[in-house]
Amino acid sequence: MTSQTYATRRGHLMREDSSEPERLLTPAEVAAMFRVDPKTVTRWAKAGKLSSIRTLGGHRRYREAEVHAFLAVARVPMRDLAQ
């Protein structure tokens, strides 16, 4: 059985096999975490650096867990990632 997901109205992602919703973040919330402009977050999504979910209205939302993982990698200096 595959796990299907769907977005709720309150900015959470529900999974069939889980009773806890996964929180979805707006571009502005993600931008505040990284201290960048929301358009930068959208560019990251378009470039494939961060995956996004589209709402029925066409707005992007980002999985909180994935954003935190991306934030952890972004805090590592680039010279350490090159090794």
Looking at this protein, list some descriptive labels.
about 80 residues, alpha+beta, Multidrug-efflux Transporter Regulator, Chain: A, Domain 2, five-stranded antiparallel sheet, 5 strands, disordered N terminus
What does this structure look like?
By secondary structure, the chain is of the alpha+beta class. It has one domain: Multidrug-efflux Transporter Regulator, Chain: A, Domain 2, CATH 1.10.1660. It has helices at residues 27-34, 38-47, 64-74, 78-82; strands at 5-7, 12-15, 22-25, 53-54, 60-63. It has a 5-stranded antiparallel beta sheet with strand order 1-2-3-5-4. A hairpin with a 5-residue loop joins strand 4 and strand 5 (60-63). The radius of gyration is 14 Å and the shape is globular. Mean pLDDT is 79; it is low at 1-6.
